[in-house]
Design goal:
Rossmann fold; disordered N terminus
C-alpha cells in the first residue's frame, strides 16, 4: 500500500536491535518518525535509556508511555519468574516461552494506533520478525494482518477511508543477520541498543538469554562483532 501523503509515522521503539533498524528504514523512506516506548513494568529500564538515546541521535520526537503490565504478571519480563538461559535452538523453537508478555504487542499497537490517529497518520512501523525470534504469537504476519484489519474497523479515519491504517513490518521475513546487514548499510549504531532480557545493573547483557543468543548468532552470521557490552565478554 502507498504511504500517507503527510509522511508522518509512528514507530514502536523498544531500544533494541530490530526497532532501531526499522527506524533507519522508515527515515530512509522519507517518513517523519514519531517514536513511542513503554514503561510497562519490565525487569529493567535500560531499554528505555537506549530508546531515548536512539531517538535523540535520529532526531525524532519520542514519548514514553507508562503502562504497568506487571500488575497482571504472567511473564518472566514482568513477574518474579526466572529468565531462561542457555537454551538451544530446538528449545527456542518449541513452546511459547515464559518471556512472552501476555498480549503485549496488541496493547502496544493499540496505543500506537491511538497516537497515529491523533497525529493524523495511518502509518505504524513495528520491528516484528518471524524467522530468528523467540516464538511469540504476536510477531507473525497473520497476526499483523489481523490487527491491521481490526484497526481499519476501529478508527474514525479507517471507517471514513480518510486515514487507512497500514502496519509496516519491514523485517518480518528477514533473519537477524540480514537485519543487521541492512542496518549497517543505513548507519545504525548498534552499540546504542540492548536486546537482553536480564542485563546487570550497568546495562551489560547477560549473553545467555534467548534474546542475547539470537542477537549474537545474527552478528556472527553477518561476520561482525556485536558492539554492545556483555557480562564477562562474549
Amino acid at each position: 500500500m502507498a504511504q500517507q501523503d503527510n509522511k508522518k509515522a509512528v514507530l514502536l521503539l523498544s531500544g533494541g536491535l530490530d526497532s532501531s533498524t526499522v527506524l533507519a528504514i522508515a527515515q530512509a523512506d522519507g517518513y517523519d518518525v514519531h517514536g513511542i516506548s513503554f514503561r510497562y513494568g519490565q525487569r529493567h529500564d535500560h531499554e528505555l535509556l537506549c530508546a531515548a538515546a536512539i531517538a535523540k541521535k535520529a532526531g525524532i520526537k519520542h514519548v514514553i508511555l507508562d503502562l504497568d503490565l506487571s500488575k497482571f504478571g504472567g511473564s518472566a519480563l514482568t513477574a518474579d519468574i526466572d529468565v531462561p538461559k542457555d537454551r538451544d535452538e530446538a528449545a527456542m523453537a518449541g513452546n511459547i516461552p515464559v518471556t512472552y508478555v501476555p498480549a503485549r504487542n496488541t496493547v502496544f499497537l493499540s496505543c500506537a494506533l491511538s497516537m497515529a490517529e491523533a497525529l493524523g497518520t495511518g502509518d505504524i512501523f513495528i520491528g516484528v520478525n518471524a524467522l530468528d525470534y523467540s516464538g511469540y504469537p504476536d510477531c507473525r504476519a497473520d497476526y499483523i494482518a489481523a490487527f491491521q484489519a481490526m484497526a481499519n474497523l476501529a478508527t474514525k479515519g479507517g471507517v471514513e477511508g480518510t486515514l487507512p491504517v497500514i502496519i509496516h513490518t519491514p523485517l518480518i521475513d528477514l533473519t537477524k543477520a540480514q537485519i543487521i546487514a541492512q542496518g549497517m548499510q543505513l548507519g545504525v549504531d548498534y552499540g546504542l541498543t540492548i536486546s537482553c532480557y536480564d542485563p546487570d545493573s550497568a546495562g551489560a547483557a547477560c549473553g545467555h538469554c534467548d534474546a542475547c543468543q539470537l542477537r549474537l548468532k545474527g552478528f556472527r552470521e553477518a561476520g561482525l562483532a556485536d558492539p554492545s557490552p556483555y557480562q564477562g565478554g562474549v
